[in-house]
């Protein structure tokens, strides 16, 4: 890529390292012309198509802030939120799809959030699945009591768009 300082059309990689979570590579580069250094980050492309039709890069921090809202007043630590964010991102990347919808992202959040905190899960699910009546909550609670996983119910027939991550892969 071009040097961001002098626009020289080439650069030399002086260091490469994979980030701790393994989802990206940071490269330290040096311009052979002006000798200045800069960093690039390489990740597998993962775009999210919003309901408005606008496409934006997947943001783990947006997932975490959405879940954090649902967790207000609940005994959920920042560390647990960070882990959830990582699991969600890994599950979405594991689909191999470069483009997802906000629906897919919400779906990937439901499973891990249900394990994390049931009250937060119900809050999140009530927004995500657009509960409008008390019966919707009662049904969701009854499902939780049954211990049956229902996060994929809203997928109209067919396979879930998102493959749940096995617990072992989340560590
Ligand atoms: Zn340069």
Automatic annotation (TrEMBL):
InterPro entries to which the protein is assigned, alphabetical: ATP-cone_dom (IPR005144), NrdR-like_N (IPR055173), RNR_NrdR-like (IPR003796)
Compositionally biased intervals (Low complexity): 160-171
Domain called ATP-cone: residue spans: 46-136
Cofactor(s) for this UniProt protein: Zn(2+)
Note on cofactor: Binds 1 zinc ion.
Keyword Methyltransferase: no
Function: Negatively regulates transcription of bacterial ribonucleotide reductase nrd genes and operons by binding to NrdR-boxes.
Protein name: Transcriptional repressor NrdR
Protein source organism: Streptomyces cirratus
């Amino acid at each position: 890529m071009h040097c961001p300082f002098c626009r020289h059309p080439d650069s030399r990689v002086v260091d490469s390292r994979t980030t701790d979570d393994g989802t990206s590579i940071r490269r330290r580069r040096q311009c052979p012309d002006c000798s200045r250094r800069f960093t690039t980050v390489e990740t597998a492309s993962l775009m999210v198509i919003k309901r408005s039709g606008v496409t934006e890069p997947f943001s783990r921090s947006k997932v975490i802030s959405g879940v954090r809202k649902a967790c207000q007043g609940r005994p959920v630590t920042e560390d647990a939120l960070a882990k959830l964010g990582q699991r969600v991102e890994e599950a979405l990347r594991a689909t191999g799809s470069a483009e997802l919808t906000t629906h897919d992202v919400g779906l990937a959040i439901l499973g891990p959030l249900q394990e994390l905190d049931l009250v937060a899960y119900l809050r999140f699910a009530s927004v995500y699945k657009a509960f409008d009546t008390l019966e919707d909550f009662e049904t969701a609670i009854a499902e939780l009591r049954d211990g049956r996983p229902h996060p994929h119910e809203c997928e109209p027939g067919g396979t879930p768009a998102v493959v749940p991550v096995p617990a072992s892969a989340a560590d």
